[in-house]
Design brief:
Length: about 325
Amino acid sequence: MKDTSPETLLYKIVQENLLGFLEQVEVDTGYPLPDFVIKEFDEYLKCGILAHGFLRAKCESCSNEHLVAFSCKKRGFCPSCGVRRMNESAIHMVDEVLPMDKAIRQWVLSFPFQLRLLLAIRLRIMGKCLAITTRCISNHLIKKAGLSRAKAKSGAVTLIQRFGGSINLNVHFHQLAIDGVYELDENNEPRIFHPIAAPTKPELESILTEIINKITRYLEKSGIIIKDDENKEFQLEIPQEDSLSRLQAAAVTYRFAVGANKGKKALVLKTMPEADHNSKKGLVAANSGFSLHAGVHVSAGKKKGLEKLCRYIARPPVA
Protein backbone atom coordinates (compact mmCIF):
# COMPACT_ATOMS: atom_id res chain seq x y z
CA MET A 1 0.00 0.00 0.00
CA LYS A 2 1.54 3.30 -1.10
CA ASP A 3 1.95 6.10 1.40
CA THR A 4 -0.13 8.76 -0.36
CA SER A 5 -1.82 10.60 2.54
CA PRO A 6 0.52 13.64 2.49
CA GLU A 7 -0.19 14.05 -1.23
CA THR A 8 -3.91 14.67 -0.82
CA LEU A 9 -5.35 18.17 -0.72
CA LEU A 10 -7.18 17.46 2.53
CA TYR A 11 -3.98 16.36 4.26
CA LYS A 12 -2.13 19.49 3.11
CA ILE A 13 -4.95 21.77 4.30
CA VAL A 14 -5.02 20.18 7.77
CA GLN A 15 -1.22 20.07 8.05
CA GLU A 16 -0.79 23.72 7.08
CA ASN A 17 -3.70 25.17 9.07
CA LEU A 18 -4.23 22.99 12.17
CA LEU A 19 -2.01 24.93 14.59
CA GLY A 20 -3.38 28.27 13.43
CA PHE A 21 -6.93 26.99 13.77
CA LEU A 22 -6.37 25.71 17.30
CA GLU A 23 -4.81 29.02 18.31
CA GLN A 24 -7.67 30.97 16.73
CA VAL A 25 -10.27 28.90 18.61
CA GLU A 26 -8.59 29.68 21.92
CA VAL A 27 -8.34 33.40 21.06
CA ASP A 28 -12.00 33.69 19.99
CA THR A 29 -13.59 31.47 22.66
CA GLY A 30 -11.12 31.91 25.51
CA TYR A 31 -10.74 28.14 25.84
CA PRO A 32 -8.94 25.39 23.88
CA LEU A 33 -10.66 22.55 22.10
CA PRO A 34 -10.94 19.28 24.07
CA ASP A 35 -7.92 16.98 23.95
CA PHE A 36 -9.82 14.24 22.10
CA VAL A 37 -10.54 16.61 19.19
CA ILE A 38 -6.90 17.66 18.93
CA LYS A 39 -5.84 14.00 19.13
CA GLU A 40 -8.19 13.13 16.25
CA PHE A 41 -6.35 15.57 13.97
CA ASP A 42 -2.89 14.62 15.26
CA GLU A 43 -3.52 10.93 14.60
CA TYR A 44 -4.87 11.69 11.13
CA LEU A 45 -1.62 13.48 10.26
CA LYS A 46 0.29 10.31 11.24
CA CYS A 47 -2.07 7.86 9.50
CA GLY A 48 -0.42 5.76 6.80
CA ILE A 49 3.02 7.34 7.19
CA LEU A 50 5.87 4.86 7.55
CA ALA A 51 7.86 7.14 9.86
CA HIS A 52 5.18 6.69 12.54
CA GLY A 53 5.26 2.89 12.53
CA PHE A 54 4.78 -0.01 10.15
CA LEU A 55 4.61 -3.77 9.74
CA ARG A 56 6.97 -5.72 7.48
CA ALA A 57 4.97 -8.25 5.44
CA LYS A 58 6.86 -11.06 3.73
CA CYS A 59 5.60 -13.51 1.14
CA GLU A 60 6.34 -17.10 2.20
CA SER A 61 6.66 -18.25 -1.43
CA CYS A 62 8.88 -15.62 -3.07
CA SER A 63 10.29 -13.87 0.05
CA ASN A 64 9.23 -10.51 -1.36
CA GLU A 65 8.79 -7.92 1.44
CA HIS A 66 6.41 -5.02 1.73
CA LEU A 67 6.06 -2.32 4.38
CA VAL A 68 2.54 -1.59 5.63
CA ALA A 69 2.17 1.69 7.55
CA PHE A 70 0.00 1.81 10.67
CA SER A 71 -3.41 3.50 10.32
CA CYS A 72 -4.94 5.80 12.93
CA LYS A 73 -8.18 3.74 13.19
CA LYS A 74 -10.08 6.89 14.19
CA ARG A 75 -13.83 7.23 13.74
CA GLY A 76 -14.51 10.90 13.14
CA PHE A 77 -12.33 12.49 10.49
CA CYS A 78 -9.79 10.30 8.64
CA PRO A 79 -11.28 9.43 5.22
CA SER A 80 -9.18 6.28 4.76
CA CYS A 81 -10.03 4.74 8.14
CA GLY A 82 -13.63 5.94 7.80
CA VAL A 83 -14.07 4.10 4.50
CA ARG A 84 -12.51 0.95 5.97
CA ARG A 85 -14.94 1.09 8.91
CA MET A 86 -17.82 1.73 6.49
CA ASN A 87 -17.04 -1.44 4.53
CA GLU A 88 -16.55 -3.52 7.67
CA SER A 89 -19.87 -2.29 9.12
CA ALA A 90 -21.72 -3.03 5.88
CA ILE A 91 -20.31 -6.56 5.68
CA HIS A 92 -21.24 -7.22 9.31
CA MET A 93 -24.81 -5.97 8.87
CA VAL A 94 -25.40 -7.98 5.68
CA ASP A 95 -23.74 -11.21 6.82
CA GLU A 96 -24.58 -11.26 10.53
CA VAL A 97 -27.49 -8.94 11.35
CA LEU A 98 -30.07 -8.28 8.64
CA PRO A 99 -32.12 -11.19 7.20
CA MET A 100 -31.47 -11.66 3.47
CA ASP A 101 -34.87 -13.30 2.91
CA LYS A 102 -36.82 -10.20 3.99
CA ALA A 103 -37.32 -6.82 2.33
CA ILE A 104 -35.55 -3.96 4.13
CA ARG A 105 -36.72 -0.34 4.20
CA GLN A 106 -34.70 2.72 5.15
CA TRP A 107 -36.40 5.24 7.44
CA VAL A 108 -34.60 8.58 7.81
CA LEU A 109 -35.62 11.11 10.46
CA SER A 110 -34.21 14.64 10.26
CA PHE A 111 -34.59 17.31 12.94
CA PRO A 112 -35.10 21.09 12.93
CA PHE A 113 -32.05 23.31 13.43
CA GLN A 114 -32.93 24.03 17.07
CA LEU A 115 -32.72 20.35 18.02
CA ARG A 116 -29.59 19.36 16.09
CA LEU A 117 -27.18 20.98 18.53
CA LEU A 118 -29.13 19.57 21.49
CA LEU A 119 -28.88 16.03 20.12
CA ALA A 120 -25.18 16.47 19.32
CA ILE A 121 -24.12 17.54 22.83
CA ARG A 122 -26.72 15.75 25.00
CA LEU A 123 -26.31 12.06 24.19
CA ARG A 124 -28.89 10.91 26.74
CA ILE A 125 -31.53 13.04 25.05
CA MET A 126 -30.48 11.77 21.62
CA GLY A 127 -30.86 8.19 22.88
CA LYS A 128 -34.36 8.92 24.17
CA CYS A 129 -35.37 10.52 20.86
CA LEU A 130 -34.08 7.45 19.03
CA ALA A 131 -36.10 5.16 21.31
CA ILE A 132 -39.24 7.23 20.62
CA THR A 133 -38.63 7.10 16.87
CA THR A 134 -38.07 3.33 16.87
CA ARG A 135 -41.19 2.69 18.92
CA CYS A 136 -43.40 4.85 16.67
CA ILE A 137 -42.23 3.12 13.49
CA SER A 138 -42.54 -0.30 15.12
CA ASN A 139 -46.06 0.50 16.38
CA HIS A 140 -47.08 1.45 12.85
CA LEU A 141 -45.80 -1.83 11.39
CA ILE A 142 -47.43 -3.96 14.08
CA LYS A 143 -50.75 -2.12 13.79
CA LYS A 144 -50.71 -2.42 9.99
CA ALA A 145 -50.20 -6.18 10.38
CA GLY A 146 -53.33 -6.33 12.55
CA LEU A 147 -51.43 -7.46 15.65
CA SER A 148 -50.73 -6.11 19.14
CA ARG A 149 -47.37 -5.19 20.69
CA ALA A 150 -47.74 -8.07 23.12
CA LYS A 151 -47.94 -10.57 20.24
CA ALA A 152 -45.56 -9.13 17.64
CA LYS A 153 -42.01 -7.88 17.18
CA SER A 154 -40.35 -5.87 14.46
CA GLY A 155 -36.63 -5.61 13.73
CA ALA A 156 -34.41 -2.63 12.93
CA VAL A 157 -30.83 -1.36 12.97
CA THR A 158 -30.13 2.36 13.34
CA LEU A 159 -26.98 4.30 12.51
CA ILE A 160 -26.80 7.91 13.66
CA GLN A 161 -25.15 10.34 11.28
CA ARG A 162 -23.93 13.66 12.67
CA PHE A 163 -23.10 15.39 9.40
CA GLY A 164 -24.76 16.82 6.30
CA GLY A 165 -23.50 16.93 2.74
CA SER A 166 -21.56 20.15 3.43
CA ILE A 167 -19.91 18.61 6.54
CA ASN A 168 -22.22 20.78 8.61
CA LEU A 169 -23.53 19.50 11.95
CA ASN A 170 -26.76 17.66 11.19
CA VAL A 171 -27.72 14.83 13.54
CA HIS A 172 -30.22 12.49 11.90
CA PHE A 173 -31.24 8.85 12.17
CA HIS A 174 -30.87 6.21 9.44
CA GLN A 175 -32.89 3.15 10.38
CA LEU A 176 -33.00 -0.08 8.37
CA ALA A 177 -36.21 -1.87 9.32
CA ILE A 178 -37.65 -5.15 8.11
CA ASP A 179 -40.70 -4.55 5.93
CA GLY A 180 -42.91 -6.61 8.20
CA VAL A 181 -43.33 -8.05 11.70
CA TYR A 182 -42.99 -11.41 13.41
CA GLU A 183 -46.00 -12.85 15.20
CA LEU A 184 -44.98 -14.44 18.52
CA ASP A 185 -46.11 -17.80 19.85
CA GLU A 186 -47.04 -18.63 23.45
CA ASN A 187 -43.33 -18.70 24.36
CA ASN A 188 -42.76 -15.25 22.83
CA GLU A 189 -40.72 -16.81 20.02
CA PRO A 190 -41.18 -15.56 16.41
CA ARG A 191 -43.56 -17.92 14.62
CA ILE A 192 -45.10 -16.31 11.54
CA PHE A 193 -43.74 -13.44 9.48
CA HIS A 194 -46.23 -10.86 8.20
CA PRO A 195 -44.88 -8.75 5.31
CA ILE A 196 -46.04 -5.14 5.29
CA ALA A 197 -46.61 -2.91 2.26
CA ALA A 198 -44.80 0.40 1.93
CA PRO A 199 -46.32 3.22 4.00
CA THR A 200 -48.63 5.61 2.23
CA LYS A 201 -48.04 9.35 2.33
CA PRO A 202 -50.85 9.88 4.91
CA GLU A 203 -49.44 7.06 7.04
CA LEU A 204 -45.98 8.61 6.92
CA GLU A 205 -47.39 11.97 7.97
CA SER A 206 -49.24 10.30 10.85
CA ILE A 207 -46.06 8.54 12.05
CA LEU A 208 -44.10 11.79 11.91
CA THR A 209 -46.79 13.67 13.85
CA GLU A 210 -46.69 11.01 16.57
CA ILE A 211 -42.86 11.22 16.74
CA ILE A 212 -42.97 15.02 17.01
CA ASN A 213 -45.64 14.99 19.72
CA LYS A 214 -43.81 12.42 21.86
CA ILE A 215 -40.40 14.11 21.48
CA THR A 216 -41.95 17.49 22.32
CA ARG A 217 -43.62 16.11 25.46
CA TYR A 218 -40.34 14.52 26.53
CA LEU A 219 -38.42 17.78 26.02
CA GLU A 220 -41.07 19.70 27.96
CA LYS A 221 -40.82 17.21 30.81
CA SER A 222 -37.01 17.53 30.73
CA GLY A 223 -37.18 21.32 30.95
CA ILE A 224 -35.63 21.88 27.51
CA ILE A 225 -38.86 23.37 26.16
CA ILE A 226 -40.72 25.82 28.39
CA LYS A 227 -44.36 26.14 27.42
CA ASP A 228 -46.57 29.11 28.28
CA ASP A 229 -49.97 30.29 27.09
CA GLU A 230 -48.66 31.91 23.90
CA ASN A 231 -45.64 29.96 22.68
CA LYS A 232 -42.86 27.53 23.47
CA GLU A 233 -39.39 28.66 24.45
CA PHE A 234 -36.40 26.47 23.68
CA GLN A 235 -33.68 26.58 26.33
CA LEU A 236 -30.18 25.16 25.90
CA GLU A 237 -27.39 26.65 27.96
CA ILE A 238 -23.81 26.12 26.77
CA PRO A 239 -21.10 26.66 29.40
CA GLN A 240 -18.60 29.38 28.52
CA GLU A 241 -15.70 26.92 28.70
CA ASP A 242 -17.35 24.44 26.29
CA SER A 243 -15.51 25.62 23.18
CA LEU A 244 -16.46 22.55 21.14
CA SER A 245 -20.22 23.01 21.63
CA ARG A 246 -19.90 26.67 20.70
CA LEU A 247 -18.21 25.68 17.44
CA GLN A 248 -20.91 23.06 16.87
CA ALA A 249 -23.61 25.71 17.36
CA ALA A 250 -22.14 27.66 14.45
CA ALA A 251 -21.79 24.51 12.32
CA VAL A 252 -25.52 23.78 12.63
CA THR A 253 -26.36 26.99 10.76
CA TYR A 254 -23.47 26.88 8.24
CA ARG A 255 -21.69 29.81 9.92
CA PHE A 256 -18.03 30.48 10.63
CA ALA A 257 -17.31 30.12 14.35
CA VAL A 258 -13.87 31.78 14.50
CA GLY A 259 -11.57 34.02 12.50
CA ALA A 260 -12.13 37.11 10.38
CA ASN A 261 -15.47 35.81 9.04
CA LYS A 262 -16.85 34.85 12.45
CA GLY A 263 -20.65 34.84 12.40
CA LYS A 264 -20.91 35.00 8.61
CA LYS A 265 -22.65 32.27 6.66
CA ALA A 266 -20.42 29.93 4.67
CA LEU A 267 -20.86 29.60 0.92
CA VAL A 268 -22.35 26.21 0.08
CA LEU A 269 -21.98 24.82 -3.44
CA LYS A 270 -24.83 22.51 -4.44
CA THR A 271 -23.28 20.13 -6.96
CA MET A 272 -25.20 16.93 -6.21
CA PRO A 273 -28.93 16.27 -6.73
CA GLU A 274 -30.97 16.09 -3.55
CA ALA A 275 -31.71 12.58 -2.36
CA ASP A 276 -32.51 10.59 0.76
CA HIS A 277 -33.37 12.80 3.76
CA ASN A 278 -32.77 16.04 1.81
CA SER A 279 -35.33 15.20 -0.84
CA LYS A 280 -38.63 17.05 -0.95
CA LYS A 281 -40.16 14.54 -3.37
CA GLY A 282 -41.29 10.94 -3.11
CA LEU A 283 -42.28 9.10 0.03
CA VAL A 284 -41.39 11.84 2.51
CA ALA A 285 -43.31 13.78 5.16
CA ALA A 286 -42.32 17.16 6.60
CA ASN A 287 -43.68 18.98 9.64
CA SER A 288 -42.31 21.76 11.89
CA GLY A 289 -38.73 21.35 10.64
CA PHE A 290 -38.82 17.55 11.04
CA SER A 291 -38.82 15.23 8.03
CA LEU A 292 -39.37 11.48 7.71
CA HIS A 293 -38.25 9.70 4.54
CA ALA A 294 -39.14 6.08 3.75
CA GLY A 295 -38.79 5.89 -0.01
CA VAL A 296 -35.71 3.65 -0.19
CA HIS A 297 -36.08 -0.11 0.16
CA VAL A 298 -34.30 -3.28 -0.92
CA SER A 299 -36.23 -6.38 -1.99
CA ALA A 300 -35.59 -9.74 -0.36
CA GLY A 301 -32.54 -11.57 -1.67
CA LYS A 302 -30.89 -8.47 -3.20
CA LYS A 303 -27.54 -8.75 -1.43
CA LYS A 304 -25.66 -6.22 -3.55
CA GLY A 305 -28.42 -3.64 -3.12
CA LEU A 306 -28.46 -4.20 0.64
CA GLU A 307 -24.67 -3.89 0.84
CA LYS A 308 -24.83 -0.60 -1.05
CA LEU A 309 -27.49 0.74 1.30
CA CYS A 310 -25.51 -0.36 4.37
CA ARG A 311 -22.40 1.34 3.06
CA TYR A 312 -24.40 4.50 2.48
CA ILE A 313 -25.71 4.76 6.04
CA ALA A 314 -22.29 3.83 7.48
CA ARG A 315 -20.33 6.29 5.32
CA PRO A 316 -17.82 8.68 6.95
CA PRO A 317 -18.32 12.48 6.98
CA VAL A 318 -15.26 13.11 4.79
CA ALA A 319 -14.89 11.04 1.62
